[in-house]
From TrEMBL:
Gene3D superfamilies referenced in this protein's UniProt entry, alphabetically: 3.30.160.670
Presence of keyword Signal: yes
PROSITE patterns membership: PROKAR_LIPOPROTEIN
InterPro entries named in the record: DUF4136
Keywords of the record: Signal
Highest taxon of source: Bacteria
Keyword Protein biosynthesis carried by entry: no
Name of the molecule in the record: DUF4136 domain-containing protein
Organism: Sphingobacterium bovistauri
Amino acid sequence: MKNLSLILSAFAILVMTSCSSNRYHTTRKQNLDFGQYKTYGWLPPVDSLSKDYFNNDIAKDNIMSTANQEIERRGLTYTKDNPDILFRYVAIVNNKSRMVYGSHHYGWGGPWGWYRPWGFYGMYSPSYPIGKERIRYGHIILEAIDRNAKSVVWQARGTHEVDNPEKAINGLPKLIEGIMKQYPLKIK
């Protein structure tokens, strides 16, 4: 019984931490040598439906400063004059809903007796939907555009749950670092 409760506790912790973590998705132009790009620049951010979460100076600075550090760690040099590759970002916050589940506990014992040091006698019923909750997800999309070909050659998206605007803005550097790990060039 102790082993089962330890396993269930570990599973619950794993589920809770996986729900709050960042997720990343990427796509790129195949068979392209990203080592050919030596300099980079920035295009203005794309207007988005960010509900003002990331449309402020602190959020923009968190995104740009972290992205610049990560790009330069991969050997590219910033320039305003004819860069080889251009980067831009899109910030989006959208609302979604998810099901909330509950279950009943059926047991015997109670406050006046039958306490067992190895556990409480009883069982849980299967979980069942009890309603929906609204949640917000923040997405930062980074794109790399080949300046000469005028086409997107790499795109990556980082997604995290947004339950607090300040926490979301302070978490942007970690999200950008995770997005840049998806870039085809590794850190030098």
